[in-house]
Amino acid sequence: MSNPRRIVAYSDLLGFSELAVQKPEIASQLLSDFYNHAQNIKVQNTYEDLELFLFSDFLFVQGDRVERVVNYMCQLYRQALQYSEHSETPMLIRGGVARGGVVTQQRREAPQVTKNFVVSPALTHAVKMESLVKGQRLLVSAKEREEIDHFWNSGINAICYDQPSLKPSELFKKYRYQDLLWARDLAQPYADSRLATMRLIVVSAKLYRENSQKPKGVVAHYAETLRICLLSYSSLLEACAEDRDFISRFVQETLIPHPNASIWVGFLECVLLSRDSFAFHIEPEMSSFLRHAVLAKEWGEVSSALEQPEHAQLLGAVKEFISVAIPTQNIS
Q1: Computed from CA positions of residues 58, 61, 66, 67, in that sequence, does the dihedral angle turn out positive or negative?
Q2: DSSP 8-class letter at 310
Q3: Cα–Cα dist 166/310, whole Å
Q4: How far apart, in whole angstroms, are the C-alpha atoms of residue 45 and residue 39?
């Protein structure tokens, strides 16, 4: 079967290979639960139009409409992180969504041996995207003519966040990429969305704290997962007692005792992208955090990240934030 313009998603379980070697029984249970989540979402949420292919620790999804594939994947991501709240073994997945040709043939090579033969530039693209990022992130790609359909599609129940610096290879240099802020489900009522997204921040922050002393490459997966959850909450953050209390706890429990440049940048983005950002400039906890941060060695990494061209607007906002919160300091 050949289809020249299918929407393809690819994702795999982070850390599964190492887990399979060290703790095969636990790996087997994790894989079984991953399969069950993937299948249950398809059946229970009327995604009959999507085709799923599960092999080892990776999932290949294809469909005709980008919003269907993206919404399915975002729901899977949310359930995976919720699973991690009650399991000793986190279920973190990472992937990408692309459009392109797919050729699928089923070949029988022996009486009981069937082989699915798949040739798909879109699948190759999605795999390349997955390898570029750390943590539970879901990238979506688009050429110029596809951007409205992919990035501004009202049927997609997640916010797209621009990632212009990502370049998979020369083969895909004409594409742009955005992160899907999957932790917030735009289809939910506002109040329910706040509670559900906050819950995922709490889960991802706990996972990060518990793993913050592991090797840098491992820590990056948990840090980036938390950053995506924070960004997902930015449009929900309000200058209310509940969110002020959240910021206070987050600063004291996570940001200061477990410093990480990626999380610090994500936290600043979350606050400065909120509609009430001006109200947080004079918050005592924000001043406390910034006074600590600008003197820490991690601030050099934060400054380097903010100096990237795609962060030009954020850099200006952070400088203004610092000038109000701690007037005697500057970003350098």
Answers
A1: negative
A2: G
A3: 11
A4: 10
First-to-last C-alpha distance (Å) of the chain: 57
295 in helix, strand or coil? coil
Residue 332 maps to a domain:
no
Rounded CA separation 142/156 (Å): 14
Q: Do 301 and 169 lie in a common domain?
A: no
88-117 in b/e form (b: 16+ CB < 10 A) is ebbbbbbbbbbbbebebeeeeeeeeeeeee
The residue type of 239 is A
Tell me the residue range of the domain where 275 lies.
Answer: 190-325
Beta bridge partners, 116, equal 106
What CATH number did the domain enclosing 130 receive? 3.30.70.1230
Digit-by-digit pLDDT tens for the chain (332 residues) are 445 578 999 999 999 999 999 999 999 999 999 999 999 999 998 899 999 988 889 999 999 999 999 999 999 999 999 999 999 899 999 999 998 866 565 555 555 544 555 666 788 888 888 888 999 999 999 888 888 888 899 999 999 998 877 877 777 888 889 999 999 999 999 999 999 999 999 999 999 999 999 999 999 999 999 999 999 999 999 999 999 999 999 999 999 999 999 999 999 999 999 998 988 888 888 889 999 999 999 999 999 999 988 888 899 999 999 988 887 655 55
Answer yes or no: are the C-beta atoms of 265 and 232 closer than 8 Å: no
Eight-class DSSP state of 274: S
Query: What are 236's strand-pairing partners?
Result: none
Which residue type occupies 264?
A: W
Give the C-alpha separation, 195 to 111, whole Å: 53
331 domain residue, yes or no:
no
Burial class (CB in 10 A: 0-12, 13-18, 19+), 239: middle
Query: DSSP labels for 116-157?
Result: EEEE-HHHHHHHHHHTT--SS-EEEEE-GGGHHHHHS-TT--
